[in-house]
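Support request from a user on the community tier.

User writes: "When I paste my structure tokens into the form, the page sometimes reloads and wipes my input. The last time it worked, I copied everything first. Here is what I submitted, just in case something in the input itself triggers the reload:"
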């Protein structure tokens, strides 16, 4: 595929039946989903999201990195300004998946080659064991003082072979996690 014909055709069909001009900017489900960029893991499909339902943040591996923390803190700040509530209550759902390409980052040889070639350190994005990594990512959020404590965080794991999402950690308020 060397041009945009296919996606522009699809957009044309989308725009022909477009009815979403009046959607509010704040997501209807009060949810932000962090997941991997893998093309098989699009939350609109996997979680049945419609336009305006959720904020979706994606990176290699779907892991909580320093830039993800900045994005979430900025979003929370904006929502706080819009709603007049400095401690907004939206739900952060972290969703990793099986057969993730970011498992390559756990291989020191691969990671070192990438760093030597590009000067990019992907160690924080490495996927080693999804359940452990998801729990570590919840801890990364809890350890980040820029993320407001009123946010709720949960962890999900999507199986690319069955289409099924399993809840690894039920939603908990960050302030409760911080209290231990
Ligand atoms: Zn992935």
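"...and here is what came back when it finally went through:"
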């Amino acid at each position: 595929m060397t041009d945009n014909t296919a996606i522009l055709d699809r957009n044309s069909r989308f725009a022909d039946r477009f009815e979403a001009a009046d959607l509010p900017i704040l997501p209807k489900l009060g949810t932000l989903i962090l997941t991997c960029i893998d093309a098989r893991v699009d939350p609109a499909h996997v979680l049945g999201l419609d336009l305006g339902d959720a904020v979706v943040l994606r990176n290699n591996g779907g892991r909580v990195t320093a830039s993800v923390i900045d994005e979430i803190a900025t979003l929370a700040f904006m929502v706080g300004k819009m709603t007049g509530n400095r401690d907004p209550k939206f739900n952060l759902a972290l969703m990793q998946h099986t057969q993730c390409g970011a498992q390559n980052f756990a291989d020191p040889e691969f990671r070192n080659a990438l760093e030597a070639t590009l000067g990019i350190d992907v160690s924080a994005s490495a996927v080693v064991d999804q359940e452990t990594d998801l729990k570590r990512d919840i801890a990364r959020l809890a350890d980040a003082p820029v993320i407001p404590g009123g946010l709720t965080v949960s962890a999900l794991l999507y199986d690319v072979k069955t289409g099924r999402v399993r809840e690894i950690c039920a939603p908990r308020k960050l302030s409760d996690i911080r209290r231990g």
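Agent notes: The reload is a front-end session timeout and is unrelated to the input. The chain is about 35% helix and 20% strand. The pocket of zinc ion is lined by residues 36, 38, 61, 97, 100-102 (CB under 6 Å). Escalated to web team.
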